[in-house]
Amino acid sequence: MKKLLLLPLLLCYSYFALPHGYIEYPASRAYLCKLQSNQNCGAVQYEPQSVEGLKGFPLKGPADGKIASANIASFSPLDAQQPFRWTRMLIETSTFDFFWRLTAIHRTTKWEYFITRKDWDPSKSLTRAQFELTPFCKFEKVEMPPSLVMHTCHLPKDYQG
To answer: Where do the Chitin-binding type-4 domain residues begin and end (predicted)?
Structure first.
């Protein structure tokens, strides 16, 4: 059976067009802080739902080097980047579901999921150059979502392991 190592940033970077919430599965970097699987996270361990950046990535949004924290100072520990700093989630197949827990529901316009490039350097700060700038999964729908949301996505073939 093939396994996929879901790159750490895939989990925390898909938040750029959502109501306040976090990805429970595969667990986001911020949610893993809440679960204490990730250590020394700062304030985000108490409010992973508050890591929300501006809409419009990659043209807008947080500055390079501040992407994981959404440029929120109290969440700056999320921007620390070292090869083994963050817990990684194993994905068994190339098709999988994202499960979101929304804590402050409001109308959404779209959900986009970005992934780091295959040649990204996990020892360097996260910048737009580290990402595929086209979402690998996208849902466009203006709606008031429920408190639990599921999106089925497919990783690009070249990300199968």
So the answer is: 20-161
In the predicted model, what is the mean pLDDT of residues 57-74? 96
Order of strands, edge to edge, in the sheet holding 148-154?
20-25, 95-104, 148-154
Residue 26, token pair as written in the block: 């595969």
pTM listed for this prediction: 0.84
Could you tell me if 87 and 37 are in contact, meaning their C-beta atoms sit under 8 angstroms apart?
Answer: yes
Which secondary-structure segment (H or E) carries 24? strand 20-25
Map out the domains of the chain as residue ranges: 4-159
CB 46 within 8 A of CB 38: no
CATH number of the structural domain 4-159: 2.70.50.50
Locus of tokens 């466009």: 140
Integer angstrom CA distances of residue 65 from 35, 68, 78, 125, 151: 24, 8, 10, 5, 28
